[in-house]
Amino acid sequence: MGKLTLPFVGMIMAEFAQVGLIIFSKKVMAQGMTNFVFIFYSNAIASILLLPTSFLIHRFQRPPITFSTLSGFFLLALLGYLAQVFGYAGIYYGSATLSTSMLNLVPAFTFLLAVLFRMEQLNWKKFSSLAKLLGTIVSIAGAFIVTLYKGPALLMGVSSANLSQQPLFSEDSNWILAGVLLAADCIMASAYIIVQAYILKKYPAELIVVFFYCFFVAIQSAVTCLVVERDISAWSLEPKLRLLAVLYSGVFGSAFQVGIITWCLHQTGPVFVSMFKPLGIVISVVLGFLFLGDAFYLGSLIGATVIVVGFYSVLWGKAKDIEDFGVRSLESKGKQTPLLEENSHEDIH
Length: 349
Known about the structure:
By secondary structure, the chain is mostly helical. It has one domain (about 1-349). About 80% of the residues lie in helices and about 0% in strands.
């Protein structure tokens, strides 16, 4: 356990940072700050922080930056920007719990896109492939439950204390819209992962990739703001909560969180990192109840549980594929062992 202590603590901190970002963004957007301006400020701050750090860390191993590389960075940023636009809009119309629950759809959508672009093989005879496919279907079913079914409130927050009864199915158009927007966020985030994996194969300097991602997102959001936000007051960082939120988003929501997850990924692998995503649901329920006064509905509990079951099914299938690949690699090496031993004996003589 000693080797996993720091990654364990790091991933818990990363999940708290993610939920904290959701809480802060919902607060400031409820006070009138638009998601476009919020995205611009947070990514501008993150890129300023990452500019010296990324090039310093990768000063000895830094591949040349070509036009093709920059084009890849720009596409990656565009997908990430769209994911943030949909995500923050979904947070505005929904709740912290709904947001973190829907984020667990990302592995399922990533699997579907990987199959679509032939980066992942779907073998109907392999149990791991069936587990990933079934997990994807279950996760999407859970998303429908958490979006369309509210049910009774299990915890009543301050802002929902005046709600006496809830219908069996959600009649709140904002809640349903939030679910659709967050699903779009997950699709864009999944496409982002696919493109990022392709880019990192050609350009393995992770922090430089993250820097250019934040830099291009800041530019894209600035252009959007100039077109959409004609009122100069939209850029205001008053009241102070806005300034605090964008500072938190830039430092902890982008630079810190991405850095921690990247380090944990390098230390432990993707399966360990992914296992902590459902923890965000628990954190969001508690923090959303305490700081936003959100209610926690039965539909959210059932839907989140179904999504998490599907989430772990996809992860198990992927982990099984990695394990099988490792076994095949060892068997392949094992077949070459006698030849290697023979060569080593010849060298000794």
